[in-house]
Design brief:
Layout lengths: L23 E6 L4 H14 L26 E7 L5 H10 L7 H4 L1 H8 L2 E3 L15 H18 L5 E5 L14 H11 L3 E4 L12 H6 L3 E4 L6 H14 L3 E11 L1 H7 L2 H19 L7 E5 L6 E11 L5 E11 H21 L4 E2 L18 H25 L1
Parallel strand pairs: 1-2, 1-4, 2-3, 4-5, 5-6, 6-11, 7-8
Antiparallel strand pairs: 7-9, 9-10
Helix pairs in contact: 1-2, 1-4, 1-11, 5-6, 8-10
Length: 399
């Protein structure tokens, strides 16, 4: 009798680089969350040839010669305040349909290796941390030491820090929130930094001097994965066709950790600011309407985003466009996280520093200057890929 077919294809590429090839670190803030777990498992699956790199822009031909670190060269670690091991977290995601059935077992070794590199995060909301009280500078020192230790022990050619933790409220008293402590630690450790969340991160005024002098590349803020991705396409469409948008309202239904975090009105306000900014930037002015976010725990890691757009046509004819986006945020975000990690690592390797406005394609609220339309942002991203490609060719010629 023949064996039962496997739910996963046979690997077609090696899962690890040769021992002489450089390796690179990806340090995830929120390392045991859904996005981080999906990114770690997905990286291992794509590197092994178990799944195609769907959603990974850096795996398209425009980036083929840009000298980006191979997926198999990436080593994962991070900070988190949760203690659920990555293999168990991956099993939960598979049960919810986020990860393919059988994938957690297929990449178990990679999940265990990454989980072994996760260090305790903090400070926790409400000051529930144990041990002696720490100042902001103490926290930054501890986090930076963790990142440097990770980089040194694995003899990594470079490390990038990516914030994929739950959204935090905007700080009201000028204090450094956890996201800003992690961002400062990344810069203090000499690492590039990506804020994939709406949280404050490097946008805190107290970190402006550090960001300017750190000599590392950084990008963010708030990954553009679903509803706002669509808005950044539709907004320019209305503007280019001279159709006046009267109102643009939206609703998000989501569960999981994001749903719980965004049930806090202050956290939801931080999230919605980016969604509304895209409309103001692409339409020239903010239309009437708001975005509402509802926590629906039964939806798990899935979400539904609905938009209602009222606009005027020729001779004042009133029309409406409605859109529905249903998807899994973790599966939408994870390939972008891997893209950004590779781009920042390559940029750092080539001596590129400061805010990378060229990566606005990935964000609701990009750092630096750049267009708001997705099409124009994609053109900028391809120019950046060409710049890295030219730098790679110049380096090869010098050698």
């Amino acid at each position: 009798m023949s064996a039962e077919p496997s739910s996963l294809p046979t690997p077609t590429t090696p899962t690890t680089p040769s021992s002489s090839a450089p390796r690179y670190g990806v340090w995830l803030i929120g390392a045991r969350g859904s996005v981080a777990t999906t990114a770690v498992a997905g990286c291992a699956a794509v590197a092994a040839g178990l799944h195609p790199p769907a959603g990974m822009v850096t795996e398209t031909p425009d980036f083929a010669a840009s000298g980006l670190p191979p997926l198999a060269s990436l080593v994962f670690g991070g900070h988190d305040t949760l203690d659920c091991p990555l293999p168990k977290r991956a099993e939960h995601l598979a049960e919810g349909g986020v990860l393919p059935h059988g994938l957690p077992a297929a990449v178990h070794a990679e999940l265990v290796a990454a989980d072994r590199e996760i260090r305790p995060g903090g400070p926790t909301p409400g000051g529930t941390d144990t041990g002696p009280a720490r100042t902001d500078d103490d926290w930054i020192d501890v986090f930076a030491a963790d990142i440097r230790d990770f980089t040194d022990r694995h003899q990594l050619a470079g490390t990038v820090v990516v914030n994929v933790a739950s959204t935090e409220p905007v700080p009201a008293d000028g204090a450094l929130p956890p996201s800003s402590l992690y961002a400062a630690a990344a810069l203090r450790a000499g690492c590039g930094y990506v804020n994939f969340t709406p949280s404050t991160g490097l946008h805190h005024p107290a970190l402006a001097g550090l960001a300017a002098s750190a000599g590392v590349p950084y990008a963010g803020r708030d990954g553009k994965t679903g509803q706002t991705l669509l808005r950044s396409v539709l907004g320019p469409m209305f503007q280019q066709r001279a159709l006046a948008v009267r109102a643009w309202s939206g609703t998000n239904l989501l569960g999981g950790g994001d749903g719980a975090a965004l049930a806090d009105p202050a956290a939801a306000a931080a999230k919605n600011a980016g969604k509304e900014r895209v409309l103001a930037d692409t339409l020239g002015a903010a239309p009437e309407g708001e975005v509402h976010i509802d926590d629906v725990p039964a939806m798990g890691d899935w979400k539904t985003a609905w938009d209602h757009i009222a606009f005027d046509g020729f001779l004042g004819s009133r029309m409406i466009l409605q859109t529905i986006w249903q998807g899994c945020d973790s599966a939408l975000a994870a390939p972008l996280v891997l893209d950004l990690a590779r781009l920042l690592l390559r940029a750092g390797q080539q001596g590129v520093t400061g805010p990378l406005g060229e990566l606005g394609f990935y964000f609701k609220d990009p750092v630096g200057d750049g267009p708001a339309s997705l099409g124009e942002q994609y053109t900028e991203l391809k120019r950046f890929a060409a710049r890295l490609r030219d730098d790679a060719a110049d380096s090869g010629a010098r050698r």
